[in-house]
Amino acid sequence: MDKTQPHPLFKLATELGPLLVFFIANAKYHLFVATAAFMVAIVAAMIASYVVTKHVPIMALVTGAIVLVFGTLTLVLHDETFIKVKPTIIYGLFAAVLGGGLLFGRSFIAVMFDQMFNLTPQGWRILTMRWALFFAGMAILNEIVWRTQTTDFWVNFKVFGVTPLTMIFAIAQMPLTKRYHLEPVSLETSEAEAGDLRK
After folding, report:
1. Alpha helices in 104-120, H assignment, sequence order
2. SS3 of 118, please?
3. Collapsing DSSP states into helix, strand and coil, what is residue 31?
4. Rounded to 5 degrees, what are φ and ψ at 119?
5. pLDDT top residue among 77 and 15
6. CB of 21 closer than 8 Å to CB of 37
7. How many CB atoms are closer than 10 A to CB 153?
8. Domain coordinates of the chain in residue numbers?
9. In angstroms, how far is the first alpha carbon of the chain from the final one?
10. Alpha-carbon span 2 to 48, nearest angstrom
11. Which of the residue ranges 33-42, 77-86, 142-151, 186-195 would you say has the lowest mean pLDDT?
């Protein structure tokens, strides 16, 4: 089944919506209510994504699974540590997959981002390394914040700190994607090349 391209605002809503639900629920109630609301919102966002696009991104699936596992542990054991360490696990996992892939000559960033770009092999390697380092840095940053700051500060950082940092980093990679952009081979070009070979 082919996936369809959603409106950019829909994609933004499914990505930021659960975080806003988490922030509002924490401000109005407390972290445990916010965690439960976050879990419901994550599932709702994945369902909405599948209904509209017939597809759920790999990153969303992995993130959703970890949120459900660590969210459940948080609620069952009534321990804030699990939901706070959850971003560290996610970022660390992404960094390990991307970095490990490079060691074996594979660039998994294309799969992770659903092939948003068409780059040369060198471009993919550089982009993968940058994102691996970014995710590793975010894992360390999350550990520092939740271990040294209050719960409310951590929630604010998660919503209003992580998102802008990620967007800024992603935008900063645009020159790289332009420099190593690879034009897709069109049908006309392929036929022309085949004709040249037959001459």
Report:
1. 109-112
2. coil
3. helix
4. -115, 165
5. 77
6. yes
7. 13
8. 8-178
9. 40
10. 16
11. 186-195
- Whats the size of the chain, residue-wise? 199
Q: What SS3 class is residue 110?
A: helix
Query: Any alpha helices (H) in the chain, and if so which ranges?
Result: 8-28, 31-53, 58-77, 80-103, 109-112, 121-148, 151-160, 162-172, 174-179, 187-198
Q: What are phi and psi of 181, to 5 degrees?
A: -65, 135
Can you tell me the distance from the alpha carbon of 152 to that of 23, in angstroms, rounded to the nearest whole number?
Answer: 9
CB atoms within 10 A of CB 85: 19
DSSP per residue, 69-103: HHHHHHHHHT-HHHHHHHHHHHHHHHHHHHHHHHH
CA distance 151 to 129: 32
CA atoms lying within 13 Å on the CB side of residue 67: 22
Which residue type is seen at 165?
A: L
Burial 170-188 (b: 16+ CB within 10 A, else e): eeeeeeebeebeeeeeeee
Span 13-60, pLDDT tens digits? 888 899 999 999 999 999 999 999 999 999 999 999 889 888 888 888
The sign one gets for the Cα dihedral 136, 44, 161, 36 is negative
pLDDT digit string, tens, across residues 112-145: 766 667 888 898 899 999 999 999 999 999 999 9
The model's pTM:
0.81
**Sequence letter at residue 73:** L
